[in-house]
Design a protein that fits this description.
The complex is a heterodimer of chains A (254) and B (221). Chain A has 254 residues and is α/β, with parallel strands linked by helices. Chain A has nine helices and ten strands. Chain A has helices at 43-50, 81-88, 106-116, 122-135, 151-163, 181-194, 209-215, 233-238, 243-253; strands at residues 5-14, 17-27, 32-36, 58-63, 66-67, 91-94, 169-173, 201-205, 218-223, 226-231. A six-stranded mixed sheet of chain A has the order 6-7-8-3-9-10, sandwiched between helices. In chain A, strands 2-1-4-5 form a four-stranded antiparallel sheet, with helices on one face. The relative contact order of chain A is 0.16. The mean pLDDT of chain A is 93. With 221 residues, chain B is mostly helical. Chain B is built from eight helices and no strands. Chain B has helices at 3-41, 43-59, 62-75, 82-108, 111-119, 124-154, 166-177, 180-212. In chain B, helix 3 (62-75) crosses helix 4. Classes of the chains: A alpha/beta (254), B mainly alpha (221). The interface between A and B is medium-sized, with 27 and 23 residues. The complex binds adenosine-5'-triphosphate (ATP) and magnesium ion (MG). Residues 43-44, 173 of chain A line the site of magnesium ion.
Chain lengths: 254, 221
């Protein structure tokens, strides 16, 4: 089967700084992949490129066979908004800082995009939203505003909001890093339950190593814009082959 | 003349002043939003047009602008009555200052909000109208309040293009009666009262927006 995500020879620069160089990376449909690695190694950049929040300079990237650059010669940089929106319709993202819309209730946060972007009727969108809010355990908070929720609750709403668009690929960029330790568990619980969704492809950047080990099909250790080592979580965590991986794991596992 | 005899004339002028102040503030808000949004997300051409407008009207004297509209527009075949000219001139002026307020508030909405909207596949227009503007408008209100009061004071200049506003009536009463002190005391008080009304109205609007958005002060981080 063709991979749903395929980076080939992708190069990404910020001015003079090259963050990804000739980057190759593939993810199969339904696969749950975790990216780990030191700060500044380019993990977020990979997710942000996939979400079309960052352009890249060279190489090709395809999502479900659709190239991010347009076939008629528009480079990835110049791809038209219409084309990018088509790609975006298959991808969702959960951010470290939740980024809920503060002027909307929880329910509005979840139904806004399905109504305005997908054109769902309000009723339909609300049904879908209530189901999702039930799934994340927050149906009783639907009329609250984000500022009235804890960080863990906000992040669970953000997950429901992303799922309401029925993405095929869901990206998580350190979803628990901004949370107080006692709130991390509730968010990981929701992500864990999503990991059982057979068709959903998940790409997760996290520093929660135990969690990564538990939910991922594959763990990729990232350093300086390259995947240094990847494989099944058991193997990566128990017998890493590369010295850099060993060093990193030793530093984070203490 | 006693104070009570002076008052009706001044009130007549105050009505004209109030009409011009309110109408030019509302029209000015339209110009401010149009130019402010064009500056932030209008593309190169629209942004340049908006910038030119803003710099011209901020950089020249309001009185000269009013004279120019009053004398020059008829020459190119456009003729408004003086009140419409006054409203239009003031609106262009307040709109230029307001555009900068709008621009500042729009860019103060965090980039993360725009990214979240993009990740949900909102179009640019949806993001502006439903995500960015509602958050930005609340930030604009205190500055808009200042501009509206400044605009009220600026309306005094329309008496130069033969509009019988409050200042005009005060001036002509003084020429007639030579009672400068009572006339100008009353005039000051009337302007002050109108400014209070504007401030109260703007505060009411701000609170309403804040509550409508259930956006407790400071929670907008
Ligand atoms: N907008 C930007 N402009 C310039 N440089 C950037 C920008 N975004 C990221 N970088 C740089 O790109 C490199 C990779 O950043 P990235 O955010 O992808 O790292 P990361 O692996 O997610 O790190 P962390 O664990 O700290 O989140 C870093 O050196 C960072 O400073
Ligand atoms: Mg990061």
């Amino acid at each position: 089967m063709n991979p749903i995500i395929r980076f080939s020879n992708v190069t990404k620069r910020f001015g003079a700084l090259t963050v990804l160089r000739d980057f190759d990376f593939e993810v199969k449909q339904g696969e749950k992949v975790t990216l780990i690695g030191p700060s500044g190694s380019g993990k977020s950049t990979v997710l942000r490129i996939l979400m079309t929040l960052e352009p890249f300079q060279e190489g090709t990237l395809t999502l479900a066979g659709m190239p991010y650059h347009e076939p008629d010669g528009h480079g990835p940089f110049k791809a038209r908004e219409k084309h990018l929106r088509q790609i975006r319709s298959h991808v969702g993202m959960v951010f470290q800082s939740f980024n809920l819309f503060p002027h909307m209730t929880v329910l509005r946060n979840v139904i806004e995009a399905p109504v305005r972007v997908l054109g769902l009727s309000r009723n339909e969108a609300e049904c879908r939203a209530v189901d999702l809010l039930n799934m994340v355990g927050l149906a009783d908070k639907k009329d609250h505003y984000p500022s009235q929720l804890s960080g863990g609750q906000q992040q669970r709403v953000a997950i429901a909001r992303a799922l309401a668009m029925r993405p095929r690929v869901l990206l998580f960029d350190e979803p628990t890093s901004a949370l107080d330790p006692q709130l991390v568990g509730e968010v990981l619980g929701v992500i864990r339950s999503l990991a059982h969704e057979h068709d959903l492809t998940m790409l997760l950047v996290t520093h929660e190593m135990r969690f990564a080990r538990e939910v991922s099909d594959r763990v990729c250790f990232f350093d300086k814009g390259q995947i240094v080592e990847q494989g099944e979580p058991e193997r990566i965590f128990s017998s890493p082959e590369q010295p850099r991986t060993r060093e990193f794991l030793a530093s984070v596992l203490g | 003349m006693t104070w009570t005899q002076l008052l009706p004339n001044l009130i007549k002028g105050a009505e004209v002043t109030a009409l011009i102040a309110v109408a030019s503030t509302l029209l000015g808000a339209v110009f401010a939003f149009a130019a402010g949004i064009a500056r932030v997300s209008g593309g190169r051409l629209l942004s340049a047009i908006a910038l030119t407008y803003i710099e011209i009207f901020r950089g020249t004297s309001l009185l000269v602008q009013l004279f120019w509209l009053y004398y020059a527009l008829p020459l190119i075949g456009i003729s408004f009555d003086p009140i419409a000219t006054g409203i239009f001139g003031l609106a262009l002026n307040i709109g230029a200052y307001g555009a900068e307020v709008v621009r500042g508030a729009l860019v103060s909405v965090s980039e993360q909000q725009r990214e979240a909207a993009k990740a949900l596949n909102f179009s640019g227009a949806h993001t502006m109208i439903h995500i960015v503007l509602p958050q930005a408008v609340i930030e604009m209100m205190p500055s808009f309040c200042n501009l509206a009061i400044q605009n009220l004071k600026d309306t005094a200049l329309v008496s130069f293009i033969s509009i019988a506003d409050l200042s005009f009536h005060a001036q002509s009463l003084r020429n007639l009666t030579l009672q400068s002190v009572p006339i100008y005391t009353l005039t000051l008080l009337i302007y002050f009262a109108m400014a209070l009304v504007i401030a109260a109205a703007m505060r009411w609007l701000e609170n309403k927006l804040r509550r409508g958005a259930a956006f407790p002060k400071g929670a907008a981080s």
